[in-house]
Amino acid sequence: MASIIVHGGAYSIADDVIPEKTKGCQLAAETGYKIMESETGSALDAVEAAVRVLEDNPFFNAGHGSIVNAAGDIEMDALIMEGSSLKLGSVFCVKNIANPVSLARRVMEKTNHVMLAGEGAIKFAKEQGFPYVSTEDLLSLEAKSRWNYYSKYVTVVQEIFASNKKDDPLSAKVDLAAPEGHDTVGAVARDRHGNIACATSTGGITRKMVGRVGDSPIIGCGGYADNELGGVSTTGHGESIARATLATRVLHLTKIQPPQKAIEEGLSFMKTKIGGTGGLILITPSGEIAKGFTTKRMAWVSIDSSRVMETGIDP
């Protein structure tokens, strides 16, 4: 039977947006799961649909609601992958489209490439008939508030990627009333045929350099799917996740230990070796669901093969 898990980002989520984060993730998970209830519904279709729901929700930093870079512009990244053939598509620094995850899928299905970036990706979106969406329409009031609140990129990283361990030196004092400076969205699914897929999408980090790319669209970092290993979507401090190749690191660890232990070991390695925090969601080849994070919070919702929904945000 089918199973799915989605996340809405691992970081210092403010108290007042928890209801919206939870509702958004629930709708995304339900949308993806419903697709897989039909005989023809695939895990690939499910993760794309789930992430599109989050990209269309201004409470998440992906698509509509994406944050603003140092120049006051919006650049978005996304990745999608399916585990039966290891086909994938990803886009870097795309502008003026609502659903980067769907553009990533077009890269996978309509080109001979796996990645497109910047002007090339934007040109491809136009050729594929993606509607133009102005920066102003993509920009939410929350994103504007974030850009005005955080005067420096380093401040964003220090505040929103604080550790969830009180005695950890990474656990800085975090103003949970401050505008959020980051989140990534993602989904992993396994359909009734045993096929696994993942997708990840983000607007990046507030006041990032123009052209900055984090882990989200990078294969093996922001996500990975292999029917023989499982599927992962990551979230957190992108530079740290990329350096740790967190997605594939954790998947390979699941070959020698239970998935929850593998997640904990992967996140511990990233914090100890690199000093970074984050989180991830995972589904094994048998359909087992696991998740973990070292940030203050991570919004997630899962629906297992028995159609049981679970929701979480705190450690």
TrEMBL record:
Keywords: Autocatalytic cleavage, Hydrolase, Protease. Transmembrane segments: none annotated. CDD domains: ASRGL1_like. It catalyses: L-asparagine + H2O = L-aspartate + NH4(+); Cleavage of a beta-linked Asp residue from the N-terminus of a polypeptide. The record marks 183-184 as: Cleavage. One of its GO terms (cellular component) is cytoplasm. GO terms for biological process: L-asparagine catabolic process via L-aspartate; proteolysis. One of its GO terms (molecular function) is beta-aspartyl-peptidase activity. PANTHER family: ASPARAGINASE (EUROFUNG), L-ASPARAGINASE. This is Uncharacterized protein.
